[in-house]
Amino acid sequence: MIALSDNEFLLVRTDPSFLVVAPANARFALCIETESGEYCQGIEPTDLIVVSAPEGGDPQAGVMLIELVRRHRTPLIVLPSNHPGSRRLRYVVSAGPVITTNCSIRRGTHPEQHLICASEALSGMTFEGVEEGVKISRIPPGAVVTRFRSATTLDFL
Predict the structure, then answer these.
(1) Which of 1, 9, 18, 76 is least surrounded, with the fewest CB atoms within 10 Å of its CB?
(2) 139 vs 55, 64, 127, CA distance in Å?
(3) Closest CA to 115 of 19, 36, 31, 44
(4) How far is CA 82 from CA 46, 98, 109, 113, 131, in A?
(5) Residues 6+ apart with CB under 8 A from 155
(6) Which of 154, 136, 148 has its CA nearest to residue 5?
């Protein structure tokens, strides 16, 4: 169990892949856009928003994606399973009370928010949002878990 305040994030990293995790901090409806339509999922304050970068990148981009969902209520877009753009997605997002990482799914093509595509090194982890923060199960050997605050340019507004 790792305690997180409202403005803290969790970074789980192996080289080069990573996950950024944060609580939603509010109740809202998250719209999920699919090829066949739109549906909305209720998000609770203790639910988590997780960004995965299976091939690496900048963790600050993960923070920005989390903020787009939790502060600005940006909907999630799910691509059809055969969409060529899925292989170009560098970052993917899931939101919900419990999220499990999986390396055998195609990026951006699963509307089920309990799953998120991750690298093989970070596959099989489970994140659960709890009142005190984040409960993590099955941290793989070699993964480094760090708690941090983000200093984005939007924080002063």
Answers:
(1) 1
(2) 18, 24, 10
(3) 19
(4) 33, 26, 8, 19, 38
(5) none
(6) 148
pLDDT for position 6:
81
Type and span of the H or E element at 133 = strand 133-137
- Give the full edge-to-edge strand order of the sheet including 92-96: 92-96, 48-53, 18-23, 8-13, 144-149
Question: Which residues share a beta bridge with 93?
Answer: 51
pLDDT band for position 155 (50/70/90)? very low
Report the relative pairing of strands 76-77 and 28-34 from DSSP bridges.
parallel
48 pLDDT higher than 80: yes
Whose CA is closest to 19, among 129, 141, 127?
Answer: 127
Q: Is the pLDDT of residue 27 over 70?
A: yes
Reported confidence tier of residue 152, pLDDT bands at 50, 70, 90: low
In this structure, are residues 70 and 27 in contact, taking their beta carbons and an 8 Å threshold? Answer: no
Angle ∠(120,149,144) on CA atoms, nearest 5? 30
Res 156 pLDDT > 80: no
